Amino acid sequence: MTVEKSPMVDLAGNVFYAGRVMAKKSSYMQQGGALLSGVVLAVILIVGLLFLTGDRGSDPPVQAAAGEDAAAMREAFRSYGRPFQAERDIAVLAREAGERRFVLMGESTHGTADFYTLRAALSQALIEEYGFRFIAVEGDWASIGRLNDYIQGREGAADSARAALESFYRWPRWMWANEEFAAFGEWLRAYNEARDPADHVHIYGMDLYGHEEAAGLLNRFLSTLRLDQPPADPQMSLTDFMAELVGDTPDEEGFYALQAAHVISAAEAFYGNMGRDGSITWNIRATHMADTLHRLAAYHSRLDGTPAKGIIWAHNTHIGDARATDMGARGEVN
Length: 334
Hints:
Elements: E1 15-18, E2 42-44, E3 50-52, H1 68-80, E4 81-82, H2 86-97, E5 102-105, H3 113-130, E6 134-140, H4 141-151, H5 161-165, H6 179-193, E7 202-207, H7 211-223, H8 238-246, H9 252-272, H10 278-304, E8 310-313, H11 316-319, H12 326-329
Parallel strand pairs: 1-5, 3-4, 5-8, 6-7, 6-8
Antiparallel strand pairs: 2-3
């Protein structure tokens, strides 16, 4: 079987991965409760370092397996592992990742407090010290857009990050409407308030869910225009129509509307194929997220006049390379 190259990896070969496996209690804005108890903390560096909780030389908390594979894994952990200390190792990670254009930060479970707090700490270091300009998360375009409005200090925006995130209403609302992410939103707002608008950091949702909200955003944009003539080609797709309407160098409002059209188009393809092989819908969603990242990078690069640097927060299954897992055998990309 030929497996298509991972779209998320095909980013000018300039990607840094920071993946973790850890869990503890998460603080929800709407509900409390503990998730799975944590067993392992691992931050994987491209330089081959593996940071693990526990003393160097102690048996790593890996699940027992038979024979030589388990022994080899324990020996690898002893050889390459060392305790992870956030204050010290966040700086190490930021230094290793800082010169890359894109830093992909994973999680093994959605809604786990530690993933949000550690990703926020690493993101803050990358923004402050290495000039990263935007963050894209595995969330809805329009709903995360409300948080972006708040951190930009726009007129009519919510009065807090928490209020902006309470607009999430569909399951799992706690994935982004949680205290840890709200605290990160407040940090972004404070960071931007101390800088000129041209130096602001932005945050976006890159998923295809929330298509109804995207349609509302698009309709509001179109209602502000005077469209004297229908499209010359009645068979023109929505995305082609919007691309022609806003042009090659759209302002922020036009860019938001164009991306909303992409969300609607991708969601139509996604839901229209729900009854078919699961890899089809998975790949539609994965490709949409990768294409969104490319569009965000191009948009911010044009504004800055230099290649923009971005941070991505998503589940491990979205930011890894499917060819190295059983996802590749199923024909799935990420």
